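User: When convenient, might I ask for sequence and structure tokens for a protein?

AI:
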Amino acid sequence: MAEKKIDIISDVDLKISVELGRVKKRFKEILDMGPGTVIELETNTGDRIDFLVNDQLVAKGEVMVVEGKFALRVTNVVGSISEAVKKALEERMER
């Protein structure tokens, strides 16, 4: 029975985000940005980064490289993936 319930929602799109870091900038600094601008983040090498599902924090992890592409190794689950899925379903129903 549980498998049938999961099958019903298995095609729901979820927005996955990995947040490398944040920084505050003054409005003028943002207006002055262009090609070649380097934005230094407050995140340091080795810091844990955030993994979000539909804008909800669900885990933290570390950046790694797999076959030349960036990847995230989840090191700690801190939120509810089921709540993020529920939110996605609600948003889909509103459309």
Q: What stands out?
A: The CA atoms of residues 6 and 12 lie 10 Å apart. The beta strands are 16-19, 49-53, 56-66, 69-77. The mean pLDDT is 83.
